[in-house]
Each structure stands twice: as C-alpha cells, then as structure tokens.
Amino acid sequence: MTEAQRQRFAAALQRVAGDEDMLVMLASIAAEDGPPMLKQVHTHVESLELSEAARVGHALKGLLSTFESGPPVDELQPMIDAARKDDGNATQLAHASVSPKLEQLLGEIEELAGTGK
Amino acid sequence: MAAGTALQAPHNETGAQSAPRSKWSKSMPNLLVIDDDRTILALAEKALAPIADVSVAANAADGLGLLREGEFDAVLLDIQLPDQNGLAVYCEIREHDRRIPVIFMTVEAASNTAIEAMQLGAFDYIAKPLNVESLRDLVEKAIEQRQISSVPVAISADDEGGDQSAELFIGRSPVMLDVFKAVGKVAKQDVPILVRGESGTGKELVARALFQYSHRRDETFLAVNCAALPDNLLESELFGHEKGAFTGAESRRIGKFEQCNGGTLFLDEIGDMAPTVQAKVLRVLQEQRFERVGGNKELTTNVRIIAATNRPLEQMVEDGDYREDLLYRLNGVTIELPPLRDRLSDVPALIRFFLAQAKVEFNKPDLEGLSPEAVDLLTVYDWPGNVRQLRAVIRRCVLDTVMPVITPDTLPDAIAGSRHSGGKSESDKTDKLENEAPGSQLPQLVQRLLKEKSTNVYGESMEYMERFVILQVLQATDGNQSQAAEILGITRGKLRDRINSYNIVLKSDVAVES
What we know:
The complex is a heterodimer.
Chain A: H1 3-8, H2 10-15, H3 20-46, H4 50-65, H5 76-84, H6 88-114
Chain B: E1 6-8, E2 30-34, H1 38-48, E3 53-57, H2 60-69, E4 74-78, H3 86-96, E5 102-106, H4 112-119, E6 124-127, H5 132-149, E7 155-156, H6 174-186, E8 193-196, H7 203-212, E9 221-225, H8 231-239, H9 256-259, E10 264-268, H10 275-287, E11 289-291, E12 298-300, E13 304-309, H11 313-318, H12 324-330, E14 333-336, H13 347-361, E15 369-370, H14 372-380, H15 386-400, E16 405-406, H16 413-420, H17 426-436, H18 442-451, H19 457-476, H20 481-488, H21 492-501, E17 505-506, E18 512-513
Parallel strand pairs in B: 2-3, 2-4, 4-5, 5-6, 8-13, 8-14, 9-10, 10-13, 15-16
Antiparallel strand pairs in B: 1-3, 7-15, 11-12, 17-18
C-alpha cells in the first residue's frame, strides 16, 4: 500500500486492526464484485425495478462500507429509501447524484487491489 | 466465489495433534458465517481463524445445510440474504438447536429488524462495516456462552411455580418451619396477630396465609399500608368519614373497618401511625367500636386484625412515640419472620419457584435454568432486601438472558461483584464525593445502579434522598429532633428510627455527622 492509500483508507485499515494484507485481499474481492453490482443498480433504476434496485443497492452499500463508511457510500441510503418507497423520480435523482462518486471509489479500491499483485 | 456457493474453511485433516487449540477446553470451536457479501466471509475466515474453525455460506439454503451437517458453537448471520430473510433463517437455526448463539450482522444497526432480532432472542448484533477486534470479542463471548450454557443446569426453570401465596411455604430451614407451625397454630384462633420481620421478608404473605387458614377465609381480606398515607388520610381510609368532615369530603366514605366487617384487615407498617389513629385502632381492638371521621354515630365491626412492622415498637413505646396499650393488644401473638440471610439454605427452593413463575410470565419457553456457578453466588449473598430482592433479581435475570441458561454474567454486579471487583469500587469514590458535596451524587448513584443491573433502584434512590433531607433538616435545627420532626412532617419516632437506620450521629456540639 502506498502512503496515500494508507491515508485514504485509514479508517478501514483501523477496522481490520492495521492488517494491510487483509485490506488488500478484501479490495480484490470488492474490485471483482462491485462493478457488476453497480451496473445492476443502474439497470434496475433505469427500468424502474425499484425493489431490485433497493436490494442490490443495499448489498453494494454493505460491500463498499468495508472501505468507506461515509460519503459516497452513505449517500446510497437515500436512493435505497426512495426505491423502497416505490418513488421512481426520487430514486433516479439520488442514483444520478451518487453514481459517479461510487465509480470513483471503485476505481480507488481497484488500485488498492492492484498493490497486492 | 459465486453467491450461493457454500465454502468450507480448510480443516486440518491430520487430526487433533496439529490442530490449533483455542482457550476453550475442547478442540477448536466451530463458527458458521452466513452472508452473501464475499468480503464479509473472507474477513471472518481470516480474522477469526485464531479462535475458531470458520465455515462460510453465501446464502440461507447453504448455511442451513451446513448447520444440519455439523456442530456449531456460534453463528454469524446477515439480516438480508438473497434467498431468505435473516430472521426466518434465525428461526430455523433455533428449531435445529436453540442453544446456538446467533449474532446478526447488519448495515442498518438501528433498523427495526435488528431490534426484532434481539427480541427474538438473538445473542447480539454487530454493525457493518465490521471491526475485526469487536467481532473477535463478540464471537469469543458467544462461544463462551455456548460452552457455559451446555453445562447441565443446577436449577431447572421447569418446576411448578404454584400460586403466589405458595411462596411463603417454600423452604425447609428450621426457622421457617417454626413460622409454618406458628401460622398453623394461630390461624383459626380469632386473635390479633403481629407479624415482625425486615422489609421484604414476606409479612403480607404470612397475613394472607393466616387468612386462608382461618374461619374467615370466605370473607373479605383487605390490606392497608399505614406508612403510605398521611395521618389524616390514613384515619379516613381506616374509619371512613362523613360528608363535610373536612375540606374535600364531598360525600360519605366507608372505611376499611366497615368494609371488612366479618373479614380480616391487614395493617402493614403499623409502627407508622399518628397517636390519634393509634387511639382509634386500640378502641376497635378492645371494643370493636369506632366512629367515622366527622361523625357521631358509633359503629360496630367484627374484624380480625393482622398487623405487621419492622419498627422497634418496644423502643418506640419507651420513647413515648407508640401507645403501650396498643402494643400489648397487638403482640399477644407474634410471628417473627427471619431475614433471608438467616435461611440461605432455602434460597435454591425460592430460586426454583421464582424462576418457574418468571419463565411463564415473560414467555421464555427456551429457558432451562441457572448454572451451578450462578446458584453458588446467589446462595452466598446476604440479601439485604430479603426474599423480595431475590425475586426481583431472578425476574431481572430471566428478562435479560438471551441464552437458555442463566450464568453469573447475567447477575447484578452486587451479587457477581466479588468475581470481578478489584481495587477501589465506584461506590467508594461516590462516598468521597458525597462527603464533599452532600446530596450531589444522586444522578451518579442512579447511573451506577443501572449499570450494576440493580433491582432496587427506586428503593436505594429514595433512601439516598431521605437521608439527605433528614441530614439537612437536622443541621438546620441544630440537631433538635422535635423541631426537625415537625418540619419534616413525620413523627419523632419515625425520625429516630431513620437516624438509627442511616447511622446519623448527633454530636454534642450539635453538628450532625453521618
């Protein structure tokens, strides 16, 4: 891990008791599972399959929270809540706002996973 | 790994010789983790490997399959699984083995589901993202609980509870056998009876037993706590009043002596009665006659009086605070109830009784009983609050426990304390602060009692306040007890009683020490 990554993921590193190898291993799993989940969220939101959007959104939130428990991961919650309430407009708005930030986070996680290779 | 695939953590095939051993006595405990998030499964496998053999499953079906095939000491379970709700999975786990502690994992720790899980009897829940150290601690605790609760119970919760009055007849200690004999001897004799004993020893139960075994058992039984009412209200409660007898007496009221004609009246805390009421009670005892407050008409009644007190009536007579003739009328027959510390051999039987009652009342069908260690601690404690305190402790334990067996960890600190305490106790520190600023420690006291899982928060807080108020008034009156009693609105006898029970020392230079 680089010094910048240690700083970026300081809270996550603390949660795994400072075990960098473990965090990198978790990153490699999240780097595999995260992008298809985010894609599924896009698809479900676009086609207004809101209960599915909420379910996958919730799972994505769980997956990414290992690395970041604040924004943008916690910003998934308004989208999940709106989808659970069957509010298509609010779901799409929340999704549009959070989506690019999640893509950026996934990029950072992918980089973190790469340090173990 | 794709979702839905069951993973088994690698087990050591070479057997026990090279298998890692945990701090527990048997070989490595087995842990099952069910979650569809692969990072959680990987984290659990790696982080928990030093303390358990970890098996993982990515969905409910695989998890339940593994559970049925193996023997697990604890389960970590995600609340939201792809194929089944975590709560439903929990119910299936309980059906399979209700002793397995289940820890829920959830991204939404404050959710209703988490609360519902705890209500269903989950061992605990942990919020995601998981913190490795917290997770390890919690899993260790769950495994430990599993192992402790696998020990056969010392006291089973499945014995017959019986009705509440049966509580009196529990115990075979010589002192209690004397009480049973006394009840049997005097129940059918129509004489007043004085029941004496510390608070919480069950004086009202003796009164009820005397009533149930008397010729009056088909008539009314009424109980009045004389200490619970101000003097004027107590007089009206006992003897009734006429319309207009005092401000607010808008209609005639029938008192307990009239209401209970032909029956039995239990007068609890008989030592806390003003002289005017004492005189009227004496007249009823002598002549069975009285008048309503504000009335002239003499009424007759046929009431058997059973009185109870924990006050030193003889001393009160000497001090002029209690009528001697009333004392002699009351104590023709006296039944002394021993404090629980003098009959500790009865504690297991009482525990059994209260446990069975609480199990039914709080709907805990899975509760099996108390571990031998818990019973040991309960049978050496000195029970200052007597049987009432024991009952409250057992009820609290039944409410608090999420495991089938109540272990020492569930007991209040005051009872389990000797195992944990070291160095200066919190109450020592409180005492020091109390001396520096009297009366200021009430919030801390309440917090401490809550933390210690006390079952007497009200009683101890009220005692603290009462002691503070009495000290302040005694200081304001330079130790003059008559003046202090008047200001406080209590009898001198009651004040003297409190001065003794709170160890308040009145120094000759009128400073008040405690």
